[in-house]
Amino acid sequence: MPDASTLLEVTLRWMHFVAGITWIGLLYFFNLVNVPLMKALDGPTKGKVIPILMPKALWWFRHAAWATVLVGWIYYAFLIVPGDPAGDTHHVVVVQLVVSLLAWAAIYALLSPLKGALNKGPVLAVIIGVVALVQAILIAKLTGGEGHSSRAVSIGVGGGMGIVMMLNVWGIIWRSQKKIIAWTAENAAKGTPIPPESAMLARRAFLASRTNAWLSLPMLFFMATASHGATIVGPWFGAR
Ligand code: HEM
To answer: What's the pTM?
Structure first.
């Protein structure tokens, strides 16, 4: 029988994969399939489809999001970081959380007004891209360097993006979609007019979901480089 720590590592890794595939799979469904579908449907059909499709899809989506991040974070904080050859590095866990919360606060502020240039997709893409880059550089600088393992820094950077993505799900997407689904169901059932605010919430949820779809690419890159790419990312982080 494998020893307890190997069993724990494999179990955490398996749970992380199952939750991560469920979350990112639905994220790509929403962005690549559901957005064009909703554009093609007329009002009455949307009124039938949304109250059935979205509650179920968003239930799995938002719960897979926190499960992926929680299991990944436990793996990172209790297995990867303590194994970092640079010795006592518990501060890196705090650095990842604080820098990621600040990055999310910036993204939340950018997606709030939805006016003028801050309602143009390409403009927001560039600004949010800079925020994500600054987040990655700060985490790499504050947790990397001589003696640190690129495995720990990779997950520090990739996991930080995962935390921002999870906060987008619970802090923007689900809060907006919850209201839109209720209004759409009420409108289909009783003909109650859908409030004009619904369009702004749908736009904000769409932009946050697009942000997550793009962030998932570098996030998965750093997940993969953790145990397979030290020679690639090690030099970036000044780590081994
Ligand atoms: C956004 C969602 C995420 C997805 C889809 C995801 C996916 C993955 C995948 C596929 C791997 C395996 C890589 C490999 O073995 O090649 C992995 C590894 C890992 N992930 Fe994530 N991850 C996510 C977020 C996070 C977060 C937020 C953290 C922690 C803060 C985290 C911590 C870890 C750790 C510690 C490993 C193991 C690395 C190793 O053994 O070297 N992940 N993740």
So the answer is: 0.93
In this structure, are residues 150 and 240 in contact, taking their beta carbons and an 8 Å threshold? yes
Q: What is the mean pLDDT of each run of 10 residues along the chain (240 residues)?
A: 90 97 98 95 91 96 98 92 71 93 97 89 96 95 81 93 98 97 92 93 96 97 84 72
Q: Say yes or no: CB of residue 227 within 6 Å of ligand 1.
A: yes
**By C-alpha distance, which of 204, 128, 126, 132 is closest to 161?**
132
Contacts of 134 (CB under 8 A, 6+ apart): 103
Q: What's the CA-to-centroid distance between 54 and ligand 1, angstroms?
A: 27
User: Is any atom of ligand 1 closer than 6 Å to the C-beta of 6?
Assistant: no
Residue 92 Cβ inside 6 Å of ligand 1? The answer reads: no
d(CA 194, ligand 1 centre) in Å: 40
Going from the Cα of 78 to the center of ligand 1, the distance in angstroms, rounded, reads 14
The CA distance from 178 to 58, in Å, is 9
Structural contact between residues 46 and 144, judged by C-beta atoms closer than 8 angstroms = no
| Cα distance between residue 100 and residue 64, in whole Å | 19
Return the residue whose CA atom lies nearest to atom 9 of ligand 1: 223
Residue whose C-alpha is closest to residue 236's, from 158, 141, 142, 147 = 141
Domain count, the chain: 1
- Measured CA to CA in angstroms, residue 153 lies from 95, 160, 171, 198 at distances of 11, 10, 26, 41
d(CA 92, CA 95): 5
Q: Which domain holds residue 105?
A: 4-237
